[in-house]
Amino acid sequence: MLRPMPATLPTRTQNAAEVTAFYDAHRTTRSYQADPDGSPLPLPADHLEAILHAAQRAPTDATAQLYSLVRLTRPEVRARMVTLTTNAHIATASEAFVVCADVRRVARVLEVAGQTPGHWPAIAVHFGIGDAVMAGTNLLTAAEMLGYQGCWIGGVMNGLDGIIDLLQLPPGVLPFAALTIGTSAEDTPHRPRVPRPLVIHTDTYHNGTDEEIRNAVAVMNPIAARQGQPGDWARLLGAYFAVGGSMEGREPRLEAALKRQGMWSGEG
């Protein structure tokens, strides 16, 4: 339920150190505190309301709010999502959502108003994904403000067709990612980020010298460390994005889902 706007807005001022500390405390968490039988620990009702409110206060293009969140509550639905995404923590998180680009609702508004929806599948993907990411990020940030941690799950790409069936998503609605929230049960290390000069560009794009790229890999190597073994970030990226990597396997599944949902703008 959307709340009425207060007469006077509360202060939002934090000092720079507080803001930096808040974002430095961010962790991606895949292990959550649960009941002894393994069932999820529910969030207090006011906490759930707060994070859902935050999601709906996200920015949007053209007032359209081109996203939907599907909240996963039934154990059998979560169990099926675990299988489809290969992410076991969907079953035990306090809250689990599938974050979707959604242009269906705008089409329905136009239809009910007696107007004919236009054909703009590339725009649907562009702004739908943008709106979905902003809503999900708002939700996660609000959860972290309340002391929880979460995890974005790109593994929806592994089972798009099954997820569309499971959640009964109509044309115009495309799963983007899953998102889990809960109280962390793991000691997740602080993870590095690519050096700022390769990410924040001034006026024109900076491609990065070979030496800058090698330095970035060295900075990022700890993120790929496993079981006490030193990390190799370039190798990890290769497993996803190089020739023969998992993203090539996901590509035809995403293309098929875009076609099925009426959001494909390419040939064929």
In short:
By secondary structure, this protein is of the alpha+beta class. The chain has helices at 16-24, 45-56, 75-85, 104-112, 121-145, 160-166, 210-220, 233-241, 246-260; strands at residues 67-71, 95-102, 149-153, 173-182. It has a 4-stranded antiparallel sheet with strand order 1-2-4-3.
Structural account:
The mean pLDDT is 95. This protein has helices at residues 16-24, 45-56, 75-85, 104-112, 121-145, 160-166, 210-220, 233-241, 246-260; strands spanning 67-71, 95-102, 149-153, 173-182. With 268 residues, it is an alpha+beta fold. The protein contains nine helices and four strands; from the N terminus they run ααβαβααβαβααα. The chain has a domain at 26-188: NADH Oxidase (3-Layer(aba) Sandwich), CATH 3.40.109. It has a four-stranded antiparallel beta sheet. Helix 2 (45-56) packs antiparallel against helix 5 (121-145) and helix 3 (75-85) packs antiparallel against helix 6 (160-166).
Sequence-ordered SSE layout with sheet pairings:
Elements: H1 16-24, H2 45-56, E1 67-71, H3 75-85, E2 95-102, H4 104-112, H5 121-145, E3 149-153, H6 160-166, E4 173-182, H7 210-220, H8 233-241, H9 246-260
Helix pairs in contact: 2-5, 3-6
